[in-house]
Amino acid sequence: MTKEALTKLKIDKPNEAARQRVKKIWDGIAKPLDGLGQFETIVAQIGAITGTAQIDLSKKAVIVMCADNGIVEEQVSQCGQEVTAVVASSMVRGNTSVCKMAKRAGADVIAVDIGINRKEEIPGLIQKKIARGTKNFLKEPAMSEAEALQAIAAGMEIAEKCGRQGYRILATGEMGIGNTTTSSAMAAALLQCDAEEITGKGAGLSREKLAHKREVVSRALDRYCFKKDEALRILASVGGYDIAGLTGVFIGGAICHIPVVIDGVISAVAALTAERLVPGVKDYIIPSHISREPAAKKIFEELGVHPVIDAGLALGEGTGAVMMFTLLDTALAVYENQTTFDDISTEQYVRFE
Ligand SMILES: O=C(O)c1ccc[n+]([C@@H]2O[C@H](COP(=O)([O-])O)[C@@H](O)[C@H]2O)c1
Ligand SMILES: Cc1cc2nc[nH]c2cc1C
């Protein structure tokens, strides 16, 4: 895919008539007006995305993009790169946190090698490797723009295939040591913030190491002098293959009218990148939680997305998004098996605003 082809993509506007029909159904259910708060809004959003008031989230999957990051060479993470391949292998065996949650939530895990630094294939992963990890972005751009576009196309392809296979909702997840550094650098560039205010501890760092990580992000910003509207250059220069792949998942989901649930800070950066590259994608994004990483809040504010879970999660893999699957299923129990005001022979609440 070329940059021109990507930027020419058009996203349909969500179906407002379907959104209104869902809202009307909520108001007819025997409960206080707006009693399920944001869950009513989100179910209506899913109606607008899919174009129907009949909400079906029976088949769901979390797409976990696994990739390595050359910036790990700069001691920005407590773990070594080899851990990415170890955890990715556990994905296949169902042994990671997201696999356990997905099993409980009735969702499939689609784990993808989009750039693990390992020569041998890990059997069971979807093979979409662009390269064996990115370059150290303090020394040279993490990847070329052509590679970034290739990874975006891979993510779009996976989302579109999920659509053909009947998945009704997708979640984004990732695994990649060092990807909170790439995310922080991208968020700082996309939002034009300082490294200081946007860079967090990731999977765990001492105070000294956090100061060093901020310094690394700051040096990268000085080196590349990004403008906020250069999303593709930002992604290629300081991003990762996981972020690029997830950017593609958000774009592909929007094209196919599939709601995509956003997870932590890495997913949030991918969502913002997708929106900057192809405006309109954000209408197809379903919130889940607000990551502990400081960049997350700023990105959600920019996107106008309101996460419903504020629990200090910072696990990644798609875990918070899968929790949201369960919450949505619970809310749908009320929506699908309606007890209406008519059923209980009671006057419906009147909406005054
Ligand atoms: O999702 C988040 O917001 C999040 C916050 C902190 C850490 N992580 C996970 O931890 C790993 C990256 O941490 P680090 O410190 O190596 O950059 C990566 O595999 C992510 O899935 C994820
Ligand atoms: C074991 C482990 C699991 C993870 N999941 C997301 N990031 C991770 C980092 C580590 C180290």
Commentary on this structure:
It contains 14 helices and six strands. With 353 residues, the protein is of the alpha/beta class. It has one domain: Nicotinate-nucleotide-dimethylbenzimidazole phosphoribosyltransferase (CobT), large domain (Rossmann fold, 3-Layer(aba) Sandwich). The protein has a six-stranded parallel β-sheet with strand order 3-2-1-4-5-6, sandwiched between helices. Strand 5, helix 12 and strand 6 form a beta-alpha-beta unit. Helix 11 packs across helix 12. The chain is globular and about 70 Å long. The structure holds nicotinate mononucleotide (NCN) and 5,6-dimethylbenzimidazole. 5,6-dimethylbenzimidazole binds next to helix 4.
Let me know the number of strands. 6
Count of runs of 4 or more consecutive helical residues: 14
Mean pLDDT comes to 98
Query: What number of domains?
Result: 1
Enumerate the spans where pLDDT stays under 50 for 5 or more consecutive residues: none
Instruction: Say what the CATH topology is.
Output: Rossmann fold
- The second-level CATH architecture is 3-Layer(aba) Sandwich
* CATH class category: Alpha Beta
SS class: alpha/beta
Q: What would the principal axes of the Cα set say about the shape?
A: globular
String of helices and strands: HHHEHHEEHEHHHHHEHEHH
